[in-house]
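User: Could you check the structure of this?
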Amino acid sequence: MIHTRGLRRTFTTRHATVEAVKGVDLDIAEGEIFGFLGPNGAGKTTTLRMLSTLLPPTGGTATVAGADLLREPAKVRLHIGYVSQVGSSFAELTGRMELEMQGRIYGMSKAHARSRAAELLTSLEIDDAADRATKTYSGGQKRRLDVGIGLMHRPQLLFLDEPTTGLDPQSRARMWEEVRKLRRAGTTVFLTTHYLEEADALCDRVAIIDHGRIVSEGTPDELKRQVAGDVIVIGVDGAAAQVLQLLQAQSFVREANLEDGSLRLCVDRGETAMPQILRLFDNAGIELGSLSLHRPSLDDVFLQQTGRSLRDAA
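Assistant: Sure, the predicted structure tokens are below.
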């Protein structure tokens, strides 16, 4: 559904040239949910805007939904839907009017647009608000309407840019279910996010992008397996650098990093490493602030690849 090689985008200002995307290679299969995971400013939205024809690439090649991105942009647009971060609805129009107008833009007859709009309003569970101005919608209702606008013409591929940013937990969960429904219906979904749990819960495959480059790619489980063993997070009161050196010298510690006053250790077996750490601290007279054990997460993958936490970077 998407094939890119060396996709780049450079922005030139009066003072500097900025490489926002530095040669992205992607292969996304039909019918999968593909997640682009990274902090704000990593190049996620720029890549998405290029693939959806909203921004011309500076270099590289790409085919999207079977059409050449550079030579056939109009053909690409016929087969894709796009939901931006900021939404696309007009405050004074009703949800039904928004959907019907989108259908007409894509060449539907009035009857077809009316029928398709009614279908989407029901499936997205906003039919009770269909004839109200969108300025009266809740955040979750507006976001579901945005998705409906993107789906009006039954695209093969739907781009979702930060689809749940700003939503409360309940609205976010409902949006996740809508995305899963799309995949079950055969729609390919390309979503950008900086929410780790969103990528883990929704995506068949994930690419982690940082500073315009893809640093890792695979299924969430494959990526987490890159971080071997367990992760132990230690909070210490002062002298963190000294404690880091002490831990790095221990044979049971595979990796150790210091971040914002906390120490992250990669160990083979957390249940045996934790008692050793407690004895080590006790013998050295070090006061322990906190100690926790968890399985590797996508944040641990990001930390391993970039040297910093995605939660903090986002």
